[in-house]
Amino acid sequence: MEVLKSSSFGDHLLTFEELDSTNKTAAELLSLSKADHGTVILANSQRDGRGQRGASWTSSAGQDITLSLILKPKALRADAQFALSKVTALAVSDTVRAYVNEEVRIKWPNDILIDRKKISGILIKNEIVGELVMASIIGVGLNVNNTHLDPDHVATSLALETGKKFDRMEVTRHLLDRFQHWWDKWNGAREEGLVSYSDRLWTRGRWVDMTLDGEPIKARTMDVDEHGKLIMEREDGTVAAYGLDRLRFAKR
Ligand code: BTN
Q1: pLDDT recorded at residue 223
Q2: How many domains does the chain have?
Q3: Range(s) of the domain holding residue 193
Q4: Model-level pTM?
Q5: Pairing of strands 207-212, 247-249
Q6: How many Å lie between the centroid of ligand 1 and the Cα of residue 166?
Q7: Pair (72, 41) in one structural domain
């Protein structure tokens, strides 16, 4: 294990050659009270990377970014925890934008897309005590130099988009800087500081196929509320907000 120095969110940067999952190691460190706010765990490869809804997350050893950030927010109410998704999605989308000359969008709740192709996924686990988020593990997988992605996934990487190879540590530092930026914004102005999230939403203002309680509907994304529910308009003009438990983008 190598401990590197950088500013702000990279102050405690722990890099590992191979791990089951950076999120799992982050949880272990937290449970042993061995992780300060701002600790970042980086792995060159993961044996058992985890994705949303129990899926696995595959990345190519030494090619992509797989990291987890540990946060100990000062006063984040559990009912406002979606702010962490916003901060992370803004930081990752800024990072991709810095290297790729394409439109980068946030697919609610927290995938980062170029066109319809996923370039990054985010997996957040919060430790809630009473009404507060006491700690958070923010896992980010970002496809960087991998050019042989699973054809079953509609996915891309920085290398596929640009035809270039990237220094992963430089991209990681950019990501941590942007994370710091949006984290500071949230700490300063709370939701007001994160309004850019709405502007970057994939399909915002467009009619698309979705499913609500498993039934196909046409809906137009308007925004995301502070609880992380997608606010959408239906064809009959009604506007309502739903969580992922009920509302999904239709599979193509
Ligand atoms: C998704 O399904 O889109 C979320 C993927 C999150 C992957 C990252 S890679 C680093 C961290 N460790 C994990 O096991 N998962 C997250």
Answers
A1: 97
A2: 2
A3: 2-199
A4: 0.95
A5: antiparallel
A6: 20
A7: yes
